[in-house]
Specification:
- Helix content is about 40%, strand content about 15%.
- It has 2 domains: about 220 residues, 3-Layer(aba) Sandwich (Aldehyde Dehydrogenase, Chain A, domain 1), CATH 3.40.605; about 200 residues, Aldehyde Dehydrogenase, Chain A, domain 2.
- It has 16 helices and 15 strands.
- The protein is α/β, with parallel strands linked by helices.
- The N and C termini lie far apart (about 70 Å).
- A hairpin with a 4-residue loop joins strand 1 and strand 2.
């Protein structure tokens, strides 16, 4: 693997095995494709295997915590399977008599799945389930630290595939040690790339020459409006910010609170488990988190007490803290707390009113996080619409725990996913939550229908009426 000259043949052999397996399932019925998805889902949801994957992920990556990863593996997979139930991915999936167009679902082929160390079990499982539901083969390219978890997951999937007589090579994983050259070569040789994780991997996916879906950077900001239920909002923010030690790109990084409720909201966040750092402590924390101007992996997805210890913060309150609160006044490279922190450290801004809060979010996203999403706690429909109409975001999450809601939840209508497109704002080619539809080719049959040629006056009538011929 360290010999780059041997990388291309190794990947080519994996691709060949994947194509042979995919050729078999290309002839599967819808019922058989559904069984593939269910088998892959049970591979991670079966409680003993779920725990084994969660424990291995935390042990080998050092990120997050076991209990939350178990919850994530279970909920995200169960929700995805709910969304996929009844979804047509084989044969005719639409037939419109009015247009004469019939749509036929076709596999994409061999999918290269680039997955992050923050979710080394849940994200590969999500991609595997979507891929096989659409009769694709899939090869997972995990982060180096996440390889053991991904490999164990693939073993579990293959064990379930054996029960239903499905080809094992439909699902594969790059062997350890995972090298950048192998990941890039896989992207070049596959038929489709779905990349979640670092922006370096996403950019490499776009440059690979293979059709690719990649996600944008997270740096979620949430607005707390004057009419918000403050303790409820604080509880939701705390739950989101601390879940799996903030490994999610959907975890809040900044909270912008309108002036009328700023002090009360700060107190509510403290009641929810936050500890407000002093000016001196903020300086020490900043030096620890960005020792050379770049976020330190030593703090990524660690607990708040662990980060406090690293920063030399010795007050007794930090021992039992759930998250750290840092007050800030600016955004941009000179204000590192305005960026993504991937840790239970929450930046708090004061805004004069809602309009000022919206502009603060805009400034933050001009620095980092454009396209992803924004949170809102309050009850003004007009303000909610303002966010959707004026901010560069693909999602507005209202009165919910953001990290749990953005990728789909049982109490909102977004599809379950661990890959969120950020649109052109985030330099992505899609702004949806990634679903099975992104893993399909669709063939369209067009039959002749009676001509539907409109009269010119019908098309231009309103224009001519207002502006003349």
């Amino acid at each position: 693997m360290n010999d780059q000259s041997g990388t291309a043949p190794m990947i080519a052999a994996m691709i060949a095995r994947a194509r042979a397996a995919q050729a078999i399932v290309d002839n599967y019925s819808q019922e058989q494709a559904d069984m593939l998805a269910l088998a892959a889902g049970w591979a991670i949801m079966e409680p003993a295997r779920n725990r084994a994957l969660a424990e291995l992920a935390v042990r080998d990556t050092g990120l997050g915590n076991v209990d939350d990863k178990i919850v994530k593996n279970h909920r995200k997979t169960l929700g995805l399977l709910r969304d996929l139930r009844g979804a047509k991915t084989v044969g005719v999936i639409a037939d419109d008599a009015a247009t004469g167009v019939v749509e036929i679902a076709r596999p994409a082929g061999v999918v290269a799945a680039i997955t992050p160390s923050t979710n080394p079990g849940a994200t590969p499982a999500n991609k595997i389930i979507n891929a096989v539901k659409c009769r694709n083969a899939i090869i997972v390219a995990p982060s180096p630290k996440g390889q053991t978890t991904a490999a164990l997951l693939i073993d579990f999937v293959r064990a379930e595939f054996a029960k239903i007589g499905a080809p094992a090579d439909l699902v594969q994983v790059l062997p350890a040690p995972v090298m950048r050259e192998a990941t890039h070569e896989l992207m070049r040789q596959a038929d489709l790339v779905v990349a979640t994780g670092s922006q370096a991997n996403v950019r490499a996916a776009y440059k690979s020459g293979t059709p690719a879906f990649g996600v944008g950077a997270g740096n979620v900001a949430t607005i707390v409006d004057a009419d918000a239920d403050l303790d409820y909002a604080a509880a939701l923010i705390a739950r989101s910010k601390t879940f799996d030690n903030a490994t999610s790109c959907s975890s809040e990084n900044s909270v912008i609170v309108v002036d009328a409720v700023y002090d009360a909201m700060l107190a509510a966040l403290v009641r929810a488990g936050g500890v407000l750092v002093t000016v001196a402590e903020k300086s020490s924390l900043q030096r620890t988190m960005w020792p050379e101007g770049k976020l330190s992996p030593a703090v990524t997805a660690q607990s708040a007490p662990a980060i406090a210890r690293l920063a030399g913060l010795t007050r007794a309150e930090f021992t039992d803290s759930r998250f750290l609160l840092v007050e800030e006044t600016g955004a941009g490279s000179d204000f590192p707390f305005s960026g993504e922190k991937l840790s239970p450290v929450l930046t708090v801004y004061r805004a004069a009113d809602f309009a000022a809060a919206l502009e603060r979010v805009r400034a933050i996203y001009a620095h980092q996080g454009a396209g992803h999403s924004v949170g809102y706690h309050g009850h003004s429909d007009a303000h909610i619409m303002d966010l959707g109409l004026h901010l560069p975001v693909a999602r507005v999450i209202v009165n919910q725990a953001h990290a749990i809601a953005t990728g789909g939840s049982f109490d909102n209508g977004l599809p379950f996913s661990l890959s969120m497109g950020c649109g052109t704002w985030g330099r992505n080619n899609f702004s949806d939550n990634m679903t099975y539809r992104h893993y399909l080719n669709i063939t369209r049959i067009a039959r002749p229908i009676p001509e539907r040629v409109p009269d010119v006056a019908e098309i231009f009538g309103e224009y001519f009426g207002r502006h003349g011929v």
